[in-house]
Structures are given as structure tokens and as C-alpha cells.
Write a structure and sequence with these properties.
A hairpin with a 2-residue loop joins β6 and β7. The protein has one domain: Ribonuclease Inhibitor (Leucine-rich repeat, LRR (right-handed beta-alpha superhelix), Alpha-Beta Horseshoe). The chain contains five helices and seven strands. With 223 residues, it is α/β, with parallel strands linked by helices. Strands 1-2-3-4-5-6-7 form a seven-stranded mixed β-sheet, with helices on one face.
């Protein structure tokens, strides 16, 4: 049986009439963009989408002003259930407008690649429980201080040195395959000298890279 809310699953908050709530006033907005009516017909889901009226350029501009994502300083876009490509594209459209966001949560959204997104003021980013496989797939975050990547699928530490020139202080990589790499903590701290905390544990003396011992292997020991 369908839930009572099924008929609203493609309805965004800005499509609801007679309210003046703006995007930067929402705590946890849902990103919704439905497929065209033709596809809904073949899915037998045409009941889930209201009859679309012709939208004028003025109405499009008013909707853009109402969204007002540019003024968001903190935003939680977690658990979006982005099941359709239309929703993913609408989600990325909103991310491109977050030019002032400082704290952003994108937990459990099945995200795979945000490399085309730039978040120029973001200091804290939480992308736990997504499907990132590489640091190269993360958005551009030049001001990042706290980055959480727990429970993704990052295989190696390749690309982590790109954060060397950022003010990154805290990094969480728990439950990623790269966590099982030999000398994992030493490799992370050697790539990020300014990092203060990894996986919730402060930098320890043993996390510093030991001196290169390859020279000693070339020596012959006489007993």
C-alpha cells in the first residue's frame, strides 16, 4: 500500500502555495524534482505529479529568489533519497548556489562525484555514508577545516595531498578500505603536516614518519 504522502513525493516546498518561507530559513529541506509526465505515465505514477501549468519568466525568477540558497551559512541536505537522475541534477544545481555555506551535511545521499562543485567558504563538510571512491571526487573546498568521509569506498590515499594547502585540522576516514593500508596514520600525517586529528584521535608522536631506514639495509653487519 502506498503511503498517504506518496502523491507529494515530487512536490518541492517552493511549489506549495501561500507561504513566504525562503531557502535559507529551512533546516533540512528535501530536494525534489520529478520526471516528465511522459515517463510517469509509463511508470504508472502519473498521480504523483500535479498538472503542470505554463510557467512565465517572472514566476521562474520569483522562485529563484524564494530559494535564496546563496545566503545559507549552515545547511543539512542529508538523507535525500535521490532515486531519479532528475533529483540528482536538481541537487547539484542547489549545491552550485551555496557560495556562502560554511557548514554542510550531505550524509547518506549515494553521492559518487561532486568534483564539478565548488564551495568557496565551506569550513565543515560531512559526506559520511556515500559512494566516493577517491579524494578527487570531492567538491572544491579551499577553506575546509573539518572533513568527515566515514563509510565511503575510498580505496587509497591517492589525492589526499591536494588538501595540503588548505587549513584542514580534522579528518575522519573510518570504515573506508584505505584505513587498512599499512602505516595508514603515518601516511596521512606525512601528506597533511598541518592535520591535528585523524578519526577522532589527536596526532601522536608515533604518527610522525620515522627516519628513512633504507640506508641501514645496505650495511653489512659483522659479528
Amino acid at each position: 500500500f502506498k503511503l498517504p504522502s506518496d502523491s507529494f513525493k515530487y512536490l518541492g516546498w517552493c511549489d506549495i502555495e501561500e507561504h513566504d518561507v525562503r531557502g535559507n530559513q529551512l533546516r533540512c529541506p528535501r530536494v525534489r524534482e520529478g520526471p516528465p509526465e511522459e515517463e510517469l505515465f509509463f511508470r504508472r505514477e502519473e498521480h504523483t505529479l500535479k498538472k503542470r501549468k505554463q510557467v512565465t519568466d517572472t514566476e521562474k525568477w520569483e522562485k529563484r529568489l524564494q530559494e535564496n540558497w546563496e545566503n545559507c551559512a549552515e545547511l543539512n541536505l542529508s538523507f535525500q533519497d535521490l532515486g531519479d537522475v532528475y533529483q540528482v541534477e536538481n541537487f547539484k544545481r542547489i549545491l552550485r548556489r551555496l557560495i556562502r555555506v560554511e557548514k554542510l551535511w550531505l550524509v547518506d545521499n549515494s553521492l559518487t562525484d561532486l568534483s564539478a562543485i565548488r564551495l568557496p567558504r565551506c569550513r565543515e563538510l560531512n559526506v559520511n555514508k556515500n559512494h566516493f571512491r577517491s579524494f578527487k571526487q570531492l567538491p572544491k573546498i579551499p577553506q575546509i577545516q573539518h572533513l568527515s568521509l566515514a563509510e565511503n569506498n575510498i580505496m587509497t590515499l591517492s589525492g589526499i595531498s591536494d588538501f595540503r594547502h588548505t587549513p584542514l585540522e580534522s579528518l575522519i576516514l573510518k570504515r573506508n578500505p584505505c584505513e587498512f593500508q599499512e602505516k595508514y596514520r603515518q601516511l596521512v600525517f606525512s601528506s597533511l603536516p598541518n592535520l591535528k586529528m585523524l578519526d577522532g584521535i589527536p596526532k601522536l608522536p608515533e604518527d610522525c614518519s620515522p627516519p628513512d631506514i633504507r640506508f641501514f639495509y645496505k650495511m653489512c653487519t659483522i659479528l
